[in-house]
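Final report, Chapter 2: Outcomes

The project's central promise was a pipeline that accepts a single protein chain and returns its three-dimensional structure in a standardized token representation, suitable for archiving and comparison. That pipeline is now operational. To close this chapter, we reproduce one record exactly as it appears in the project archive, with the input sequence first and the structure output second.
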Amino acid sequence: MHDTTLDAICQILPKSRQDLLLVPGIGERKAELYGQQILDALKQFRGGARALATPEKKLKPADETIALIEEGKSLDEIAQIRGRRRSTIVSMVSDLVARGVIPYRTSWVDQERQKRIEEACVIAGLEKYGAIKDVLPPEFTYDEIRLVVAFLQRKSDTQSMTAAQ
């Protein structure tokens, strides 16, 4: 129905099918198809019922993760809150860091370990995590590597943009 018809229904507040036919935009056909539903809704309205509040919009996964990071949550806490594996959160966060959406946080990877990963990246490059992992001792995780590589990629992109200006 058009807004003008809905407005007229709200002004007239019909109580019967005959009253509905007085509403501009409602003829025999619409009264037959929708009349009882309209009358029932108006009866509930007169009884105090109101439309339900619009449900709160759910954040997109990346926006939810960003909000949790901004609240100071750790990657493990974010994984628990969002019901995801830590590696899933690390993958998303790494992507956000590499794209410059969020800044890299030094609390995500121990500084000494970060330094070792950066050295491995100089040897193996930034393209393949497996090649970087092969240069490092086995106790280094792909999560740590992903985060540091994202940091290095963003740092490289920022330096390239600065140099271009």
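Archive annotation: The first helix runs from residue 3 to 12.
This record, like all others produced under the grant, will remain available to the consortium after the project formally closes.
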